[in-house]
Amino acid sequence: MAGQHALDRKIQQFRKEYFYRSNQAEENRKRENQAAILIQSWFRGCLERAYLSHLHKKAIIIQKIWRGFTARARVRQMVKAAYFIMKMNFYEEMAVRIQQRWRGFYARKHIHDFYARKSYMEGIIKKNNFVREELDEICYLQKKERESLKMIKEQTAKVYQAHRLHYLLSTKQCPGVFNSPFRQAPHEMELLLRQVKHSAPTRLVPKSRVSFLGIPDPAACSFSAPTESPWIKSTRTCSIRPALPPIASRNHQVMAVKARTKSLDVED
């Protein structure tokens, strides 16, 4: 009985202990659950971080290998392109040199022939000398023609002046202005006055149209005088010959003889 009683007492004590511990466990269940969750999350975080770090390292290795592969492929492509460009530049330079040599040879042989150009230049020199000689001859003839025209104009001016100053001619009673008694021979104008015949102008000429030196104005009345050049070019030949003076009529010859006889009488 004593043993039964001790056993019951132990059972009661065990039940109390069980209920007490159950209550304690129920009270600490939430806190322990939170602690377990915290521990599990921290542990799982450590595992995930370790795994992610491992994956990151492996990804870096893979990227490094891939980037190296792509970079080497790109460098090989760049080297190929640079080699191709260098080769094409070399080919172009050699082609230019070949074309230069060929074009120079072709131009020297078929286009710019030295001997043909030399003969051409010699022909040009000969033609130039011939043209220069002709131009010199033409210049000389034109100069002579200008001189003859100038002489004709001077003679025409003198004749016109003699016609205007015919009243100054010497007479038997009174010597003229140009026939001074102190001269050994008459003046040139005096001889010219003896040769020409006085003829009044057809109309009055204003003083503004008469030249100061005695050369007639183009609008003034003019006397007949040869104004053409004595050098006339022949139409049939290239030679230039002087024109012969016109044949004077019989009346003019008679008048010239009378004028000469009068001048001789005056001198006597």
UniProtKB/TrEMBL annotation:
It holds the Pfam family IQ. Keywords: Repeat. InterPro entries: CellDiv_DevSignal_Domain, IQ_motif_EF-hand-BS, P-loop_NTPase. This is Spermatogenesis associated 17. Signal peptide: none annotated. It comes from the Eukaryota.
